[in-house]
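Hello,

I think I submitted the 2-oxoglutaric acid job twice by accident. Can you confirm which output corresponds to this input? Input:
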Amino acid sequence: MYKVLVSDNISQKGIDILEEAGMDVDFKPEQSRDDFLENIADYDGIIVRSMTQLDKEVLAKAKSLKVIGRAGTGYDNIDLDQATKRGIFVFNTPTGNTISAVEHTLGLMLALARNIPQANQALHNDIWDRKKYQGVEIKGKTLGIIGLGRIGSRVAKRAQSFGMNVIANDPYLAPEKAENINVPLKSFEEVIKESDYVSLHTPLTDETYHILSHKEFAMMDQNTRVINCARGQNIDTAALAKAIEENKIAGAAIDVHEEEPVKASNNPLLKYPDQVIMTCHLGGTTTEAMDNVAIMAAEEVVSVLKNNLPESPLNIPAMDPQEFIKAKPYINLVTKLGNFMAKWKGHHRIKSIEVEYAGEVNNYSHKPMTLSLVKSVLEPILDDRINLVNAMHIAEERGINVKESQTQHKGELNNIITVRLNTNKGKYSLAGTYLPIGFRVIEINGLRVDLDLSGEFIIVTYQDRPGVIGKIGTTLGEENINIANMQVGRQTAGGEAVMLMQIDSKPSSETMGKIKDHLDALNTNVKDLSYIAM
Ligand SMILES: NC(=O)C1=CN([C@@H]2O[C@H](COP(=O)(O)OP(=O)(O)OC[C@H]3O[C@@H](n4cnc5c(N)ncnc54)[C@H](O)[C@@H]3O)[C@@H](O)[C@H]2O)C=CC1
Ligand SMILES: O=C(O)CCC(=O)C(=O)O
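Support: Only one job matched these inputs. Its output is below.
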């Protein structure tokens, strides 16, 4: 039974899903860091929101952890690099709370324009002051959005319906996406200078850390109001407090904070209740969003622990489910070629893995295929320590160069995948194709063959000599091993030859020894002789 820790508050619906799937669930949102560090080794899966820090120290102790589910969007609290190196799948549920974050942003903008929280607070204190709390309209004003993704684009659409003029900065967005929603893309500086309202909707990255600081506040108009519903570290809090103090800008509405939870001791913005509205990271906290992200995260954790790939992976290439279904035969083909190669090359040290894709297979992303190949080639050495998440990292760590290429050439076949290994004892190459009837191996070390890529094989590479086929056939016959199919390829008469035999049962090591003795007696210079079960 898998153990799953839920270390932040999530909807009960998520916990029910985990339990119904037979998981042993610990719900511990209030756990101390020390307890967390002490117990994390016990868990196969974890679900977090933004409060749990899954940093290097934690992940080093998380010896059994296979999957991290982020019930929400931003994943800056997870050390993705470390999780990847440790082969832990990480996914988020980025669509579950988009609308809630959008609506909270709009709410903050209106509250900021109309002094709603301040007037409410005053009235609760028995103060009626219509002059002090006079607001401004948002109609006709310019809203500058930094980060026009899922949330930013929806904020834009709603703001346009209020009659706002929306502009945006997003260097990574395809310009057509912005054109489609009638939002002109401008430089960061233009947005900062031209906007009455600046709203942040970027993830927290090295580039967006303190994206608004002294310099940017100095560029803003005095009537500018700033909204942050993204991440606290996107704004330099001290610089914002100074800009407010010096009336460089008109106000700010802040949902996310550099230090959470906010306390009077750690946040200078609390000194400006008339200009700064603050909420306690509530952007994604609605009943609907909480249910959505918890259900999605729980279902995905269960699915990944059952050996499926996550739908919104953060550390393996994502694939559209429809595309995945179509590409699956090629993923299976390349995995089979990798399994074959791993057994064929035996204990030789791999220097490089090359894969060449030809024909129809080029219609799909190669990344999942190449990852599957690397995993299958290295698996016999590393067992369950290698998976799709850490395959490239492990290859790199072992000095194995992985190269992929594509070509249109495929002859009469619809698709061909060729795998080449360079080892300390020589080169191996194997090509296969996917046909609706199954997988075929069509080339070994450059020699044409045609065999079903399933079942059990003996493969031998040797110097072409008369009598080899007969000797091997007789030896297998004496051991009562039936040869279902056999193909021999050779470069030239007397040159390097490869024999691939599909057999009906496993030969003993004595049988393999006898074959080797016969081949040596015939002076065939055996390069390798392997039994391969697929
Ligand atoms: N306050 C809350 O409770 C919530 C906060 N969030 C935060 O909102 C962020 C955005 O969420 P989504 O819109 O779903 O993400 P998204 O990935 O759909 O959009 C982010 C956009 O930012 C752009 N971007 C990245 N770096 C940029 C840069 N240096 N300058 C300008 N644009 C840049 C990207 O190209 C992308 O279009 C999340 O990363 C999360 O941190 C999300 C949900 C709830
Ligand atoms: O998950 C949370 O703690 C709140 C929502 C959020 O910040 C996010 O989804 O990025």
